[in-house]
Specification:
five-stranded antiparallel sheet, mainly beta, Immunoglobulin-like, elongated, about 140 residues, five-stranded mixed sheet, single chain, 10 strands
Length: about 140
């Protein structure tokens, strides 16, 4: 019984903390597949601050395509921006990019979602959602 309660508490904590998820696998079955991954927990960015997080492309051994990356912030126009470096992961390059998240000094407090989409040269795109929190200004 004790183990059951412990398991339920751990599951509840996982839901409360939240996680970033990749929606599907991109690429094509004949040419290999890939999946994007971001940080496992929400990222906090203070007003006027910047945070940089890693985005990784986990590819199977058959995937040999370049992947174009883009980022979109939701809600848009509230003072939080996102940019990627590089914007294209070349087939022979390391399979990672840096996502720079900025919150302007006048950014609205609250939670944001940044969707990073990877579109291969051939095949289906995939995405990962990064959760961002801008705390109340002190």
């Amino acid at each position: 019984m004790k183990a059951l309660y412990t398991g339920m508490m751990v599951a509840g904590l996982a839901v409360l903390v939240g996680c970033n998820t990749s929606s599907t696998t991109g690429g094509s079955p004949g040419g290999g597949t890939f999946k994007l991954e971001g940080p496992a927990t929400s990222t906090t960015v203070k007003h006027g601050g910047t945070e940089v997080v890693d985005i990784k492309a986990n590819e199977d051994k058959n995937f040999k395509e370049d992947v174009a990356l883009s980022a979109a912030v939701d809600p848009d126009g509230k003072g939080v921006t996102a940019s990627l470096d590089p914007t294209t992961i070349k087939a022979g390059d390391p399979k990672k990019a840096k996502l720079t998240i900025k919150a302007k000094d006048e950014a609205a407090d609250g939670d944001y979602k940044i969707t990073v989409t990877g579109k291969p040269t051939k095949g289906q795109p995939t995405s990962v959602v990064i959760k961002v929190s801008v705390p109340k200004k002190k």
